Amino acid sequence: MELEKNVFQRNGTHVEFPTVVSENGYDNTDIWNNIILDDINRILKMYSAYAFSPSTDLEGVLMPDTLNISYEIKRNDNCYLSILYIADFYSPYAAYPTQLIYTTNIDLKNNIRIRLSDMIEVDNSLIDNITSWEIVNKDINREIRQAIMDYIMGLGNNILLMGFESADIISSDNFLGIYSYMTSDRIGISMSLPNYLGGHVEFEYQRHS
Questions:
Q1: Could you tell me the residue range of the domain that residue 162 belongs to?
Q2: Which of 63, 115, 119, 170 has its CA 20 to 30 A from that of 103?
Q3: What are the angstrom distances between the C-alpha of 6 and each of 36, 66, 101, 102, 180?
Q4: How high is the pLDDT of residue 51?
Q5: Domain final residue, candidates 92, 114, 136
Q6: Using CB atoms within 10 A of its CB, is residue 16 exposed (0-12), middle (13-18) or buried (19+)?
């Protein structure tokens, strides 16, 4: 399926997102593109609460908020479209810049947005097995990996399970910032982390079906 990049830019906000090109016999491109646009709007809403206008005595002193969103296509075939968004945000009112991950997964046969719970069983066995999944982030050494796993497991099984149950909801209800994606043979999970651990981490595991 052919995709083209679209760009939205206003003040300090720069957003790149894909659009499905209507060709090759696809009749549902409007549905798919509306799903993508809905998710982009939800992501932007996540940052609207942090958009403060500086007081007059600070104008010209503090730089404005900046939000840059780019994307990667993780899967694109006749069954699924999986998009991973990288959101880099800076506010002069924040202690440090942040980078967070969001995703959109579309079941092209049923014309619906799907979540992690539609791909795999979200239960205690998922929590038990997460430590065996492969961390795919670059430049993570053994010490940082262990610190990440210690942080995740330190949240406790109940908190983790609730977090995974709310995965892929683009709102504050997704309190652990868990988003999933698909490749041709793997499932990926991104989880938000404290800034000192890198802001987010991505795990992948081999699909068996």
A1: 115-209
A2: 63
A3: 11, 19, 19, 17, 23
A4: 47
A5: 114
A6: middle
**Per-position DSSP letters for 14-53, written without gaps between them:** EEEEEEE-S-TT-S-HHHHHHHHHHHHHHHHHHHHTT-PP
Q: What are phi and psi of 188, to 5 degrees?
A: -115, 150
CA distance 21 to 88: 27
Same domain? 94 vs 147: no
Q: Are 69 and 15 within 8 A, CB to CB?
A: yes
pLDDT digits (tens, 9 = 90+) for 150-201: 999 999 999 999 999 999 999 999 999 999 999 999 999 999 999 999 999 9
Distances, alpha carbon 89 to alpha carbons 44, 55, 69, 98, 99, in Å: 11, 21, 9, 5, 6
Report if pTM > 0.85: yes
Per-residue pLDDT, 53:
42
* Cβ atoms 180, 187 nearer than 8 A: yes
Q: Which of 94, 114, 134 is the last residue of a domain?
A: 114
57-107 per-position pLDDT tens digit: 444 455 578 999 999 999 999 999 999 999 999 988 778 899 999 999 999
